[in-house]
Every structure is written in C-alpha cells, then in structure tokens.
Specification:
Number of helices: 5
Order of helices and strands: HHHEHEHEEEEEE
Strand content: 15-25%
Radius of gyration: 19 Å
Strand order of the largest sheet: 3-6-7-8
Mean pLDDT: 85
Shape: globular
Distance between the termini: 30 Å
Length: 193
Amino acid sequence: MKGVKLLLDTPLYIVGHSARRSEEQTKSRPRLTMTDVESAIEFISDGVVDTQLKTRMIVLDYLQRIRPDEKDGFTKREQMMEAVNRAKDLALSFGCPVVLGVQASRDVLSRDYKLPRLDDGQETSNIEQSSDKVISLWFPIKTEAEGKQVMDDIEVTQNLLVCGLLKQKLGVAPVILPLYVEPSKNLIAGMMV
C-alpha cells in the first residue's frame, strides 16, 4: 500500500502541445526544441510548487518530432545527433534517466523477424554511441498473422509484445523477451513460456 501511495503522490508533468488547445484555436501545434524542454523542466523543478522537486524521469516522444534549434546543424543527420547529445546532457544535468522514443525505419517491415535493431532508428546513428541502454519493441499482431511462430515456441497473439534489450552499458545484452501486453489496460507482464 505504501508504494501505491507514493505513486499517487508523485506528480506527473506533461510538457508540450495540447490537442484541446489546438482545436479551440484552430492552429497547428508547434513542436518543441530541446531548449524549450530544458527550460520547462528547470521551471517545473524550481518554480511550480513551493518545494523544489527532484526530476525522476524525462520521457521524450519522439526524437524525429523534436524541432531543431538554429545551432543544431544544417542537415537532418546533424540535427538528430545534436538532439541525442542534448538528451544525454539532460540526463546528466538532472541526474535522472531520459527515455527517448525513436521511430524505426521502414526497412524493418521487409524482414521476417521485425524487432528493430540498433541501426534501425531513422537518422539516429548517435543513439548507439550515446545511450546507456537501448530497448526495442515489436508488437507482432500489427505485422504478422495471428498464430504465426515468430520466436522459438512463441506464436503471434493479440497480447504478444517482443522486447529486446539491445544495449546495456553495465549488463548483459542483447536479451530478447516475449511479454504479455493488454494495451487497453496499460498492462505489461512477463509471459509464461
């Protein structure tokens, strides 16, 4: 019960554009730059409530939608590399993990086994060098027929999620795990194999 209370007492701040506000103003939603994200997190940590807050995790969803600052380079590749560097800087300056969502390239769809690999992120060569951990996800029911075998003794179901720990700075990798998922309930659990 103590863990549930702690979870309920932990504030969650979402920084970014609001679908409701965009509908009301009938304007397109501007994307944030990494400078915008840094400023927002500093403001939340130092000024939203009377007590100073400790940032526990930053989730950036997703890399390709982060708008580059003028100083981030001229090519898409340079801009993505700089966004990854700045995400790493966020982790160091706030002393917390930064989870950076990245879309896999369409090349993944041409393979039989579609779990994205380290080099499958679009414009993201810097992720392999800068990340402490890389996790890859594949929801086979979206790309395969139900009942098809995709792993040793594992068949595609409505609830199969394949998770790959592709890189782990201080641990074993790669590790591939079949997981049980119910998206409508936000439930992810181990799978009995």
